[in-house]
């Protein structure tokens, strides 16, 4: 097979990438069943899809499913530090995907790759953080002439899309894949919780038991992280700006403090808020010597990195892989993981494949639904149809060998009637 248009580090890595992709596929039974269905039904025949996603083995299996369904796919990376170069090579050489992604690429290359996949004049967009939608709307709107809709799979991206829609700027129907019950439960809570701990452990080899972890943000991701940190014996402090989420954390037994107070107590700090400047200069000035600082929000703006640079009198790069040590004027050291980018992908491998099976199964079925129904949809942010969420949950239960009850006709009648 002739390799499609691409910009990857080394096509010679393709066979290593195939092994990685096939290993992930073993833990993705729901997506595999959908891939088989797509190969038979070809619901996306002739459609061009532009994707901005993490270039990982799990993503590769989603794109394989879309290719099986008849789509032409062009992929750019959604984060410079998460690209697996062997997976990128396999996608090009073995699976026929146009990939423009290299590990540790600079910001200019990242932006250029987004434009490159948009130049395919896609019918559908798959976005991870809203960067693809943003650059298309603000810089190259002419490339959306044939685009009929798309999906967004992150909390940060959905927030951006809702702001665009409220301002009347969003020109497409975009489905908020992130907001499904299965995605929030499985991916955000269990996936981010485990993979963030994984990234911290790989980068530091630190014992969490007996140490204090500060979790900034108590959304689904923060809850999952707090649960797993507590399960490993850490004392957990939560910081929040939302009183309802803060109350939830209190009722679950966590200590809730303002960041100014938490900064004095923490040994490990992780931001998972989706907002910027959560940890700032005034907080960094209070850190203990040796404090570990990480981010598991989508963009690298949650930690005020310029402030950290300005406070440091010395920066010791790579004291361990994906760990940089900043020495402050009084000798205190702050260890920043994965350059302040997503620690679970920068210092580890992201979510386990079993987690992404559910998220990408929802995404695959949503793409097929968009292919069929886009003519009926108006611009704005849309929910995933409830039947897709339920179908994916049923597929996962079947893969786990779990059986559940079904309602009797009398129970269905009872719930559908208001009469006693």
From TrEMBL:
Binding-site residues for substrate, renumbered to this chain: 56, 128, 183, 187
Cofactor: NAD(+)
Record's keyword annotation contains Iron-sulfur: no
One of the record's GO cellular component terms: cytosol
GO BP: L-homocysteine biosynthetic process; one-carbon metabolic process; S-adenosylmethionine cycle
Entry note: cofactor: Binds 1 NAD(+) per subunit.
Amino-acid positions noted as binding NAD(+) in the UniProt annotation, renumbered to this chain: 154-156, 188, 217-224, 240, 275, 296-298, 344, 351
Glycoprotein in keyword set: no
Domain S-adenosyl-L-homocysteine hydrolase NAD binding: 188-350
UniProt xrefs under HAMAP family: AdoHcyase
Known function: May play a key role in the regulation of the intracellular concentration of adenosylhomocysteine.
Family label: Belongs to the adenosylhomocysteinase family.
Name this protein carries in UniProt: Adenosylhomocysteinase
